[in-house]
Amino acid sequence: TDTGSQKDRVVTKEEWLQKWETGNIGFHKEQGHPLLQKHLDVLLNGRSGLRIFFPLCGKAVEMKCLADMGHNVVGVEVSEQALKEFFAEHSLSYCEEPVPEISGAKKLQSTSGNISLYCCSIYDLSSSIVGKFDAVWDRGALVAVNPRDRQHYVSLMITLMEKNSSYLLVTVSYDPNKHKGPPFYVPESEIKSLFG
């Protein structure tokens, strides 16, 4: 698998926080992602009241849309600013509490209770903390994690999924020698080997 000069690239937590602080968030989609709208039936598979996971959620507007449809949404994001902007932009009240199992982590939960956003590293989560999910909307997570961390990331995702869960994944295709990422290039062959 040729991922060009990207395989050793590392984006630090500080760099991600800086992107949020400076508003350098071209990856955020104000209107929601068109591929979720197009393939929502695949993700939901006719089911209602699902637990849906948003890895590296940022302030994705789809979290509110899916919660409004009656689903329980759980997200994780290192930027507290992103999570607070999500609640503010949707005029949602929330409460904040520490996550005892994860040092320094916080959970921001809508007062309605159907949106829970964890502010921490995704690698600090486990099914014993967040439970398991019926669906995962991976809109920009696999392509954002450092290439050397992909196996760790996918292994975690698999432990968070219920047996019959749906996983909707968006990747980008381009010449990895011409762009250093993120988003990183993840070829289809690697997706197949990672997820099995």
Automatic annotation (TrEMBL):
Entry's EC annotation: 2.1.1.67
Example GO biological process: methylation
UniProt keyword annotations, A-Z: Cytoplasm, Methyltransferase, S-adenosyl-L-methionine, Transferase
An annotated GO cellular component: cytoplasm
Compartment(s) where it occurs, according to its Swiss-Prot or TrEMBL record: Cytoplasm
GO molecular function, one term: thiopurine S-methyltransferase activity
Enzyme class: transferase
Reaction(s) catalysed by this chain's protein: S-adenosyl-L-methionine + a thiopurine = S-adenosyl-L-homocysteine + a thiopurine S-methylether
Transmembrane segments: none
Ligand binding (S-adenosyl-L-methionine): 16-27, 56, 77, 121-122, 139
Pfam families: TPMT
Family statement drawn from the similarity comment of this UniProt entry: Belongs to the class I-like SAM-binding methyltransferase superfamily. TPMT family.
UniProt-listed PANTHER family: THIOPURINE S-METHYLTRANSFERASE (PTHR10259:SF11)
Protein name as annotated: thiopurine S-methyltransferase
Gene: Tpmt
